[in-house]
Write a structure and sequence with these properties.
mainly alpha, Sodium/glucose cotransporter, Helix Hairpins, 4 domains, two-stranded antiparallel sheet, 37 helices
């Protein structure tokens, strides 16, 4: 494919992202009840980066089925998603946290050291991962264009700049880091759909159509000894590799900065977590369904020199044509760009709030920092892209994707002991967290990062062979040999276990500060705290001049934002700031959380401490607040339950009352209709009988005419009374059916013949489409004819006055005889369709005339069909008209089912 064309298409794709993001930002789509949960769940699929799209195939081609472990870990975590991530999300919202570094800093006493350490070490761990995405874009561009390059235009650099611009526009437009980013999240969700669609379409075309299906690919692979090894675990070592890959990837789905950003920071409703619990595992299954077949096809049908990471693209290029190659390219492009957007945003936010801000922010009542804060965040984000591109250009250009991805996962996993320990263990201490992270990251750097750097510089051979200072046991390779695992798994396992051991040991023998202890209580018991009582647990016992607090907020938030938040606070708490001289502890706590959104918890703590001089509250006071909060929450819960019960009871009573009123109206209408129906023939009979009585000399022909009319009116009376009695028998259970094997076709024809005169009179076109091979079934002949006559007479009555047409179809469907009676009349509303089978009910809009009939016919039909074990229903036809359908089960015989044609 032409390189300039691909660059133009890539630019167009990025413009679409900008358009979608702008549209979503204006409409706040994450708050929509129907689409919000799906967008949220799809955004979590940013976990599937270019490593998933390309690197999983590369790993499967060289290591076999162990690539599954990288996705099995997250799948095993998602059943706990509601428990774990809901707690994280609640803490993020209550404490106004904007990154995982802020989370750990806040948990361990709002400590600057731990926030800075986590930010820097995470930057080291994730920057190679961002470089991986840039590398994937560059490599895939070369594959698609056949290696054509332009000295005056570097498509990788241009793409990196464009993604940086997108992240700046839709990720840093607000001063605070936890503002909803609807545009960015929606664009990421869209890219999740693009990469999934590209992977599935590409897999179906290549595997199912080009190579004859997965079964054939696997069969051919099993004929080759070198490929058979990919399907088995041959040793305890490989089993241990699986175990640790599952553990590390399970941590990654929660702790990767981009995952923490989309799952916790961008969550706008905790109920969205429930949608993610099943959608994300399903997504992971679908996007991996063709990984192994594609890897095997690449091994079998591509030259040995073809890089395994790009088997998908090369197979499409060789066997699928330009359109398929372009589709897969954009699938990988979307996977890479979405990861770059979210990761750079989260890393840039951590870098600015935990590393840069502390170096220049100083307590002051006069300086305006609001502009500097936004500028610093944007420069930090730009620096992330520069670091990622530099790492790609100088260090990662010849490194496999899988190697980079796993190394980053192992690095981020070093946060797990301090993170989850702080989430559930009150005794987790700051010094323990610091010591554990330093030890874990130290081993990770030594065993995984240092060898990569030295190898890229051509200096790593002696170090890997003989170890540090010539001590062979200090070689990263020796770690694997000594433990019976691969070098990577050994380094990851040793670093994580050492981290955990040091964290627990130091925490046990360390006394927490008062602030640490208070924060631990608040984090571990977050669900016991109401929003109002959390303000009381603000860890401040001081009275500060209100104007000092306001001046501090203006310095960091600006005049407009400060006025907005203070006005809202005053309205909620019933405060008049014109009469308020001192800010109480709740006000101070509120101000601290506002600053936390902008500059992080540690810096916010320092700024507030500069104006609020006072003692920290004790852990016992925090416990009292928690107990009070728990009582308030329980009381609110009880009141809410009673309110819900009362609301449900009220709703049920209202529905019952409405139904009674409807039945009363139906009853009145029925009585009117029945008395009218009875009075009409009785009046006719009486009038004609009186004529016969008064005129003894009436001609014989006239006498016979009057007598015939009297007989017809009597039959009409008999029919009405019979309907009422029949309905009573059906509902009381005393009605019995005379079941015999009957031909449904014959019964339909007989019913049609009964109404022949009416059909001719109204000039109705009757079209019978009855399957000639309909089997016999157990039926009550007279009752089924009664049903057909009723449905046909209704259809004729409601047919179009001009060009009226009735269609009858009958066929076998799913072991049932099914009959449809369709007319082309004015149709029936959905509301009336639910009521027409109720006794006494009549369709009200019969061309605006008084309803005719007693309203019992369809109720009787329903009882007849149900006694046969079938169903009867009605539905409006799309092109006007009504379709009545009923089924009768085939009891004695089974016939081949025909597809329904009408």
């Amino acid at each position: 494919m032409n390189g300039l064309l691909l660059i133009a298409l890539s630019a167009a794709y990025l413009l679409v992202l900008f358009f979608i993001a702008q549209w979503a930002e204006k409409r706040n789509v994450l708050s929509w009840k129907k689409t919000g949960p799906f967008i949220y769940a799809l955004s979590i699929a940013v976990y599937c980066s270019a490593w998933t799209f390309y690197g999983s195939i590369g790993r499967a081609a060289t290591s076999g089925i162990d690539f599954i472990a990288i996705y099995l870990g997250p799948v095993l975590v998602f059943p706990l998603w509601w428990i774990v991530v809901r707690k994280i999300t609640r803490i993020v919202r209550v404490q106004h946290i904007t990154s995982i570094a802020d989370f750990l800093a806040a948990r361990y006493g709002k400590n600057q050291q731990i926030g800075t350490l986590v930010a820097l070490l995470t930057l080291v761990a994730v920057t190679p991962y961002i470089a991986l995405q840039i590398k994937a874009i560059g490599d895939s561009f070369i594959v698609v264009t056949g290696g054509s390059a332009y000295s005056w235009l570097d498509p990788v650099l241009v793409t990196t700049i464009a993604i940086c611009a997108f992240t700046l526009i839709y990720g840093t437009r607000f001063l605070t880091g936890n503002k909803p980013k609807n545009g960015m999240v929606t664009a990421v969700a869209l890219e999740s759909l693009v990469k999934l669609g590209a992977f599935l379409i590409g897999g179906i075309v290549l595997i199912s159509y080009v190579f004859g299906g997965s079964k054939k690919v696997f069969a051919e692979a099993m004929q080759r000894p070198e490929l058979q090894e990919l399907f088995t675990l041959n040793s305890v070592s490989e089993s241990q590799d699986w175990l640790w890959l599952i553990v590390i990837s399970g941590f990654a789905i929660v702790l990767l900065p981009r995952q923490f950003q989309v799952s916790a920071i961008e969550n706008q409703d905790e109920r969205h977590l429930k949608k993610a619990m099943w959608m994300v595992p399903l997504y992971l299954l679908l996007i991996n369904i063709f990984v192994l077949p594609i890897a095997l096809a690449g091994r079998m049908y591509l030259p040995e020199s073809s890089p395994s990471d790009y088997y998908f693209l090369n197979l499409a290029n060789a066997y699928g044509g330009n359109w398929l190659t372009a589709l897969i390219y954009f699938g990988g492009f979307s996977a890479a760009t979405s990861m770059m957007v979210v990761s750079s945003l989260s890393l840039g936010n951590m870098l600015s709030t935990n590393v840069v801000f502390p170096t220049f922010l100083r307590p002051s009542k006069t300086k305006d920092y609001s502009t500097k804060i936004i500028l610093t965040k944007r420069l930090s984000l730009i620096s992330i892209f520069i670091l990622g591109y530099a790492y790609y250009h100088y260090l990662a250009i010849n490194t496999p994707l899988v190697s980079i991805g796993l190394t980053s996962f192992a690095g981020v996993a070093q946060l797990a002991p301090a993170f989850f320990g702080g989430l559930y263990w009150r005794g987790a201490a700051r010094k323990g967290a610091l010591a554990g992270i330093l030890v874990g990251f130290g081993i990770w750097l030594y065993a995984l990062i240092l060898p990569t750097l030295l190898s890229n510089l051509g200096l790593g051979a002696d170090f890997l062979a003989n170890g540090l200072w010539g001590i062979k046991s200090l070689s990263p390779i020796y770690f694997g040999a000594a433990t019976g695992m691969s070098a990577f798994t050994a380094a990851a396992a040793i670093s994580l276990l050492a981290n955990l051991f040091v964290f627990v040991l130091v925490s046990i023998f360390t006394e927490q500060t008062k602030l640490e202890s208070n924060q631990a209580e608040l984090f571990v018991n977050i669900f016991r705290i109401s929003r109002r009582n959390y303000d009381k647990a603000g860890i401040w016992q001081a009275d500060v001049p209100y104007l000092d607090i306001k001046s501090l907020l203006i310095n960091f938030l600006g005049d407009k934002r400060t006025e907005e938040v203070l006005d809202r606070y005053a309205r909620i708490n019933g405060i008049n700031f014109n009469e308020t001289v001192q800010a109480d502890s709740r006000m101070i706590s509120y101000a601290e959380r506002l600053l936390t959104e902008a500059i992080g918890p540690a810096s916010a703590r320092i700024m507030i401490a500069s104006v609020a001089q006072g003692d920290e509250i004790s852990i016992y006071e925090v416990m009292d607040i928690l107990r009070e909060s728990k009582e308030v929450l329980q009381l609110n819960k009880d009141l809410r339950q009673k309110h819900d019960q009362l609301a449900r009871a009220t709703d049920e009573l209202q529905q019952a009352n409405t139904r009674l009123l409807e039945y009363s109206d139906i009853k009145d209408e029925f009585l009117y209709t029945v008395t009218h129906e009875l009075r009409t023939p009785l009046t006719a009979i009486r009038a004609q009988a009186e004529i016969l009585e008064d005129d003894d000399e009436m001609p014989e022909a006239d006498r016979k005419m009057f007598l015939s009319s009297i007989v017809r009116e009597c039959e009409r009376l008999t029919k009405l009374i019979t309907n009422v009695l029949d309905l009573e028998k059906f509902e009381s259970g005393s009605q019995k059916l005379d079941l015999k094997k009957e031909s449904l076709k014959e019964l339909i024809i007989e019913a049609k013949d009964t109404l022949r005169q009416l059909i001719v009179q109204k000039e109705i076109e009757l079209d019978c489409q009855i399957n000639s091979s309909l089997p016999e079934a157990l039926m009550d002949r007279d009752r089924i004819i009664q049903v057909m006559v009723n449905l046909l007479s209704n259809a004729i009555k409601f047919c179009n006055s001009e060009n009226g047409k009735v269609i009858i179809t009958a066929y076998v469907l799913h072991d049932n005889l099914k009959v449809n009676v369709i007319d082309n009349g004015s149709g029936i509303s959905k509301e009336e369709a639910k009521l027409v089978f109720d006794k006494f009910y009549q369709v009200k809009d019969q061309t605006r005339k008084k309803p005719t009939g007693s309203g019992l016919g369809l109720a009787i039909c329903k009882n007849i069909i149900q006694m046969h074990g079938g169903e009867i229903w009605v539905q409006p036809e799309p092109r006007m008209g009504t379709r009545f359908s009923f089924t009768i089960p085939l009891v004695l015989q089974q016939m081949p089912t025909e597809k329904e044609t009408t």
